[in-house]
Amino acid sequence: MRILFTGGSGKAGRHATAYLRDQGHRVTNLDWIVSDVPGITTLKVDLTDAGQVFNACQAYAGIDELEPGTGVPRYDAIVHFAAIPAILHRPDNETYRINTLSTYNVLDAATRLGIPKVIFASSETTYGICFADGEKTPDYLPVDEEHPTVPQDSYAMSKVVNEVTARSFQARSGIDIYGLRINNVIEPHEYAELFPDFLDQPAMRQRNIFAYIDARDLGQMVDCCLKTDGLGYEVFNVANNDLSVGLTNAQVIERFYPNVPLRREMGEFETFYSNDKARRLVGFAPTYSWRDALPSADREG
């Protein structure tokens, strides 16, 4: 497929674009920073400028596309990951403005230009737990896509708005638009750097609902969505299958969630950030785990 990928130079985007490249897709990266991933070309674009977005969506992906003499090929899909990635990077109003306006522009261009699929990055923060003022627990466990999304912060607010915007564009156009509520992204080298502390201090993971997503498995999820047509508008939690701490579910519940209702029985180490819908509807099958990445001595420590 010929794919336009926004934010491909970021933490999640670098791994997702590499995964898509390895699946044989042609990927053009729209970003402020040139990607250092081999085989990924970058077009520098300000996504808050609608004119630049519309132009980029109708541009050649490389000199080789001039050879047939048949004009600019159409992109098969847009994957929209570009965003201010969290609170405290920019003033709150700028985070909100950039994230919502860029998403509107991407969706507007895609639907007007006949690009048949958009996959966009939403966030775990939409559930209102990650950046809450003080401690907030889920309404129930495991957290699925039906859980209320009432956050307090500008970043998560922008993601909720983007989901509403995406639903409206899908209703207007009928194309497939899938939102990914991505949990805390972990790169391969971060297992050794971060997880020993997570095992020693499991409370560090409470704001992430004790979940995570390996950056490589996130790439797989994007590819699963590219290969799955006809769902219309959907949102998916994206997380690995297991907890990001060494405790069992029962131990986490006893320590952190004693008063949170449990909606179903769960596996001993099953994630509280349910990925059931993604596995069922698009065939998502995460393969990486911190348990395989860390030496046994570190896991036990």
TrEMBL record:
Domain called Rhodanese: residue spans: 2-42
Top-level taxonomic group: Bacteria
Pfam families: Epimerase (PF01370)
PROSITE patterns linked: RHODANESE_3
PANTHER family (alphabetical): NUCLEOSIDE-DIPHOSPHATE-SUGAR EPIMERASE, PUTATIVE-RELATED
Name of the protein in question: NAD(P)-dependent oxidoreductase
